[in-house]
Amino acid sequence: MFLCTVEALLLSISSPLMTLLILGEMLYSHYHHKELYQGKDTAISLMCTSLNFLNDLVFRGITLYILHWCYTYGPQVFDQKGAVYWMLLFFAQDLAYYALHCADHFCRFFWASHVTHHSSEKFNLAVAIRSSVFQPYYRFLYFIPLALIGFEALDIVFMYAATQVYGFWVHTETIGKLPAWIEFIFVTPSHHRVHHASNREYLDANMGMVLIIWDRIFGTFKPELEGVKPVFGLTKNIYSFNPLKVVFHEWLSILRDLRRTKSIRNKFKYIFGRPGWNHDENQIIDNGIPSAQPTV
After folding, report:
1. Are 71 and 147 in contact (CB under 8 A)?
2. 284 beta partners
3. Structural contact between residues 147 and 70, judged by C-beta atoms closer than 8 angstroms
4. What number of other Cβ atoms are within 10 A of residue 75's Cβ?
5. How far apart are CA 156 and CA 64, in angstroms?
6. What strands lie across the sheet with 289-292, from one edge to the other?
């Protein structure tokens, strides 16, 4: 109950603060003629965060039940919840999110949900709340290992919420590169601009939420390059503010691709392979430029 209260307090503090920061960035954009915002685009972001919140509420009980069940049958190695417990949970949860985020980018089934977050051609604080609508229904899978090694369900959910708050401020063009030691350890606006860019030089990079060290360790780190301005949005933008198209366009694209082949192997790759895979040439299409893949 205590952590539920703490999470509610975190939400009650962070939500008004985020709203004020978004409004502040809007005013900055308006008075400096930056064109960082577009009305219909921001409305889509608000819709997505509302749907994500509702889905999270609907599935929260099941998430907590599954994580608690896993915790009960795990080794429960922590005798008390001291500083070491919370520090280890932070690192474990941030790594689990990194794995989740990689799956969202490299498996088309999950990309079909996550693509909503990347569909804006703007990059601003409102895009931070352009949540993946259906992610609450599978996100818990990546937190099961945390429960199995002895972290309690409510603690995991609280730590996830806390790190999501951190992820808000990195969605901006108004902050340049920070001191080198910060850029080396933490996810920064510069790192996350790369993550949201559709330039071929930047695709599928910088998956961390709080720590960029996971990307450095596992080879998904790419720096923001001088002279290569990030182009935000998708490699094939949908050019629509229709809420249904924004949320479901990739699922419909998967269905169209499934109709193009009778091969079970090809159908499987269209669902669970890397986004952009094309059975005609056995290629991944990055930003309209094919890169040959080995035949399986």
Report:
1. yes
2. 277, 291
3. yes
4. 9
5. 9
6. 277-278, 283-286, 289-292
User: pLDDT tens, 257-271?
Assistant: 999 999 999 999 999
Q: How far is CA 134 from each of CA 168, 218, 243, 255, rounded to the nearest angstrom?
A: 19, 26, 14, 18
CA distance 112 to 104: 8
pLDDT at 284 over 90: no
The helix/strand count (H/E) of the chain reads as 11, 3
Asked if residues 69 and 149 have their Cβ atoms less than 8 Å apart, the reply is no
User: Encoding tokens for residue 249?
Assistant: 């366009």
Rounded to an integer, what distance in angstroms lies between the CA atom of residue 132 and that of residue 229? Answer: 25
> Exposed/middle/buried for 287, CB within 10 Å: 0-12, 13-18, 19+?
middle
What count of residues does the chain have?
A: 296
Residue 58's nearest CA partner among 129, 136, 133 is 136
Enter the DSSP assignment of 125.
G
Please name the residues in contact with 201: beta carbons below 8 A apart, sequence gap of 6 or more: 222, 225, 228
Note the pLDDT tens digit of each residue in 30-68. Answer: 999 999 999 999 999 999 999 999 999 999 999 999 999
Strand partners, 289: 286
CA 64 to CA 289: how far, in whole Å? 43
CB 111 within 8 A of CB 218: no
Residues 275, 232: Cα–Cα separation, whole Å: 17
